């Protein structure tokens, strides 16, 4: 087709009608957003000559995406999560805001309600047969660099199969396995014992991977550990660290790797270190401080409210 009708008053009036812009009922914000997005899609259909067959394949795809619960998985794959971080980074920079540990994406697999522990937590239930013990620790610091006793460190990661508890298709994991909330001790320190996570891959038979295949892309993430860090007077930090040496460090399908978020991992084999941690064999150790940033005009400008799985 070569006809161009998008700019006609018929189509432009129709877009306003379909977006409810001819009436007062409903939400002005929803109308504004829907009008813009639907207009952009109509324009793309015309510019790219998107066929009816292609359009209906897309509609069927959205149904599958929802039915499989993968909209939140596709989002980082298409870079939206990273884009929101880029916008926040740019906003901070334009305001001259002093930032701490770099932010990076939350991902779709957080669960609220994890057990709360003081200072130290064991994250894993000891059942992963391939688990290599990890000790990770550090100090939570405020915007002025001072330790923050009482800061809340929420941590979650996957097992050696790349599966997260509560989202594990094998059903093997106990509730909240590898998920805890740790309250920083009197020196502002947090510490946990767990196992070194492996990389994550999108469900290979799912709609996210199906679309990535069409783009000639893989759906894998380097091994990583997620954090939310909160403390009085500070913005909530959402971040992750990567496991150093993972071959996908700079090839993450979700684009979450950032400079400053790949701390060194040390293999400890000496008896003194093993004993000092109450362990019976070699382990990996990561030290990583988490530095928060101050509220801006009394406001947390980086907190994100999104639907999250909550388990009692
Ligand atoms: C996805 C999975 C993750 O573990 C993560 O941290 C980010 C994104 C995903 O499946 O899209
Ligand atoms: Fe993750």
TrEMBL record:
Pathway: Aromatic compound metabolism; beta-ketoadipate pathway; 5-oxo-4,5-dihydro-2-furylacetate from catechol: step 1/3. It comes from the Bacteria. It holds the Pfam family Dioxygenase_N. It is an enzyme of class 1 (oxidoreductase). Keywords: Aromatic hydrocarbons catabolism, Dioxygenase, Iron, Metal-binding, Oxidoreductase. The keyword Metal-binding applies. Residues 136-164 form the Intradiol ring-cleavage dioxygenases domain. Its cofactor is Fe(3+). It catalyses: catechol + O2 = cis,cis-muconate + 2 H(+). GO terms for molecular function: catechol 1,2-dioxygenase activity; ferric iron binding. GO terms for biological process: beta-ketoadipate pathway; catechol-containing compound catabolic process. InterPro entries: Catechol_dOase_N, Cchol_dOase_prob, Intradiol_dOase_C, Intradiol_dOase_core, Intradiol_RC_Dioxygenase. PROSITE patterns: INTRADIOL_DIOXYGENAS (PS00083). The keyword Cell division does not apply. Its EC number is 1.13.11.1. Belongs to the intradiol ring-cleavage dioxygenase family. This is Catechol 1,2-dioxygenase. It comes from Eoetvoesiella caeni.
């Amino acid at each position: 087709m070569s006809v161009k009708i998008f700019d006609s008053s018929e189509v432009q009036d129709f877009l306003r009608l379909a977006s409810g812009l001819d009436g007062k009922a409903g939400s002005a914000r929803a109308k504004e957003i829907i009008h813009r997005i639907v207009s952009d899609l109509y324009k793309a259909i015309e510019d790219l000559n998107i066929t009816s067959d292609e359009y209906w394949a897309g509609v069927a795809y959205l149904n599958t995406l929802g039915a499989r619960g993968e909209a939140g998985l596709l989002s980082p794959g298409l870079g939206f999560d990273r884009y929101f971080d880029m916008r926040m980074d740019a906003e901070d920079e334009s305001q001259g805001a002093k930032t701490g540990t770099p932010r990076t994406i939350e991902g779709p697999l957080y669960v609220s309600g994890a057990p709360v522990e003081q200072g130290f937590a064991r994250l894993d239930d000891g059942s992963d047969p391939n688990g290599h013990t990890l000790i990770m620790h550090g100090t939570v610091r405020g915007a002025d660099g001072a330790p923050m006793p009482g800061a809340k460190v929420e941590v979650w990661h996957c097992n050696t199969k790349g599966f997260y508890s509560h989202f594990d298709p094998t059903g093997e994991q106990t509730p909240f396995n590898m998920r805890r909330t740790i309250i920083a001790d009197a020196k502002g320190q947090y510490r946990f014992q767990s196992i070194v996570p492996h990389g994550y891959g999108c469900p290979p038979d799912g709609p996210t991977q199906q679309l990535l295949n069409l783009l000639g892309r893989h759906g894998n993430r380097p091994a990583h550990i997620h954090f939310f860090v909160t403390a009085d007077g500070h913005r909530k930090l959402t971040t992750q660290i990567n496991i150093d040496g993972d071959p996908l460090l700079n090839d993450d399908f979700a684009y979450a790797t950032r400079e400053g978020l790949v701390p060194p991992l040390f293999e400890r084999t000496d008896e003194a270190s093993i004993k000092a941690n109450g362990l019976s064999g070699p382990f990996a150790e990561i030290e990583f401080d988490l530095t928060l940033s101050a509220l801006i005009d009394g406001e947390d400008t980086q907190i994100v409210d999104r639907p999250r799985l909550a388990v009692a």
